């Protein structure tokens, strides 16, 4: 089972619910891949070995060959009805990806279910997980479970009797369950720290050029014309592509947009006041030079005011 979706979409919640329903009929082995600065080869296998009575852990301790390790793990899964969950395999090291490919191609000969969760919005064209998925999806034993964002109706159900505009909340969060539940749990109406930390943690994994692109895009606004972005930040194509590959920006017609308005607001709030003012000034200049932007008076006035340019605010 390949369970995919953006961060916060509910992959872990779904798998947790599924495994709880079957905990009495199958052994559940839970492993996680981590976004470590120094990846630990076969890190998730150590998690799995600690939950199994066999000799896999001993093989790891003596640095056995991958062939011996993989064969031992397969034997464990063949000998006992099991559900093996590998979370966040978009962060898996190469050795773990080899293990997943090895097991995935042999699941049909076991009494086990292998579940892999991953963020499909973080898989660029060259991501190593792509080749593993390409091998596994051709197998008759593989099933894909892509999770979708919540609809406005579902958001209204989560809101219940609270005096909150469901349409506005859906627009603000893009239907992301994590964002929605965190906002509903907030008591003061401010942006929950959990959302801010989650967004900034994702941006921290980007290059400096890509982060500069996101900051400029956040200032430009919900709709980001590529020509305006290029003028403001002198954006290199690779930096923009990196933001797209990480799922921070999306293509919307001829323009770009943030996946979630909350993400844009979080990045905007994290920019220092002097730098933000400078970006508003550059955005104003870029819009004035744009054939479309120069006629959008309210937008020009917004950036002029944020740039501290009183004269430009009064221009018509």
How much of the sequence lies in strands comes to 5-15%
The CATH architecture term of the largest domain is 3-Layer(aba) Sandwich
Query: What is the spatial order of strands in the main beta sheet?
Result: 2-3-4-1-5
The CATH superfamily of the largest domain is known as P-loop containing nucleotide triphosphate hydrolases
How many helices?
17
Query: In CATH terms, what is the fold-level topology of the largest domain?
Result: Rossmann fold
Instruction: Note poorly predicted spans.
Output: none
Output mean pLDDT: 91
The helix content, as a percent range, equals: 40-55%
Report the major sheet: 5 strands, parallel
Write the layout of secondary structure elements.
Blueprint: E1 2-4, H1 11-21, E2 27-32, H2 43-49, H3 56-61, H4 66-79, E3 82-87, H5 94-104, E4 112-118, H6 128-136, E5 144-146, H7 152-159, H8 166-173, H9 177-185, H10 193-204, H11 208-220, E6 224-225, H12 226-233, H13 237-245, E7 249-252, E8 255-258, H14 261-270, H15 273-289, H16 297-306, H17 310-314
Parallel strand pairs: 1-4, 1-5, 2-3, 3-4
Antiparallel strand pairs: 6-8, 7-8
Describe, in plain words, how this protein is organized in 3D:
The protein is of the alpha/beta class and 316 residues long. The chain has three domains: 2-146, P-loop containing nucleotide triphosphate hydrolases (Rossmann fold, 3-Layer(aba) Sandwich), CATH 3.40.50.300; 149-190, no CATH class; 192-314, Arc Repressor Mutant, subunit A, CATH 1.10.10. Helices cover 53% and strands 11% of the residues. The chain is built from 17 helices and eight strands. The chain has helices at 11-21, 43-49, 56-61, 66-79, 94-104, 128-136, 152-159, 166-173, 177-185, 193-204, 208-220, 226-233, 237-245, 261-270, 273-289, 297-306, 310-314, and strands spanning 2-4, 27-32, 82-87, 112-118, 144-146, 224-225, 249-252, 255-258. The strands form two sheets. The protein has a five-stranded parallel β-sheet with strand order 2-3-4-1-5, sandwiched between helices. It has a three-stranded antiparallel β-sheet with strand order 6-8-7. It is elongated and about 75 Å long. The mean pLDDT is 91.
């Amino acid at each position: 089972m390949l369970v995919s979706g953006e961060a916060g979409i509910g992959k872990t919640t779904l798998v947790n619910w599924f495994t709880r329903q079957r905990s009495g009929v199958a052994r559940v082995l839970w492993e996680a891949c981590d976004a470590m600065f120094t990846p630990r080869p076969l890190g998730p296998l150590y998690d799995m070995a600690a939950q199994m009575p066999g000799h896999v852990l001993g093989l790891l301790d003596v640095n056995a060959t991958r062939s011996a390790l993989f064969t031992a793990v397969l034997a464990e899964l063949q000998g006992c009805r099991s559900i093996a969950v590998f979370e966040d395999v978009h962060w898996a090291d190469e050795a773990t990806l080899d293990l997943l490919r090895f097991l995935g191609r042999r699941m049909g000969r076991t009494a086990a279910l292998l579940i892999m969760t991953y963020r499909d919005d973080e898989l660029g064209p060259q991501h190593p997980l792509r080749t593993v998925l390409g091998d596994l999806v051709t197998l008759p034993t593989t099933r894909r479970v892509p999770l979708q964002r919540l609809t406005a109706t579902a958001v209204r159900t989560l809101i219940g009797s609270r005096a909150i505009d469901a349409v506005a909340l859906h627009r603000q969060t893009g239907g992301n369950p994590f964002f929605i539940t965190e906002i509903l749990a907030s008591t003061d109406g401010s942006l929950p720290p959990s959302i801010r930390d989650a967004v900034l943690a994702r941006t921290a994994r980007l290059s400096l050029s890509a982060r500069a692109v996101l900051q400029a895009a956040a200032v430009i606004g919900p709709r980001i014309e590529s020509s305006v972005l290029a003028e403001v930040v002198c954006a290199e194509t690779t930096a923009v592509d990196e933001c797209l590959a990480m799922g921070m920006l999306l293509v919307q017609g001829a323009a770009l947009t943030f996946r979630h308005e909350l993400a844009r607001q979080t990045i905007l709030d994290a920019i220092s006041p002097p730098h933000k003012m400078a970006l508003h000034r550059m955005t104003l200049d870029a819009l004035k030079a744009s054939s479309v932007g120069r006629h959008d008076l309210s937008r020009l006035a917004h950036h002029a005011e944020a740039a501290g340019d009183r004269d430009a605010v009064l221009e018509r």
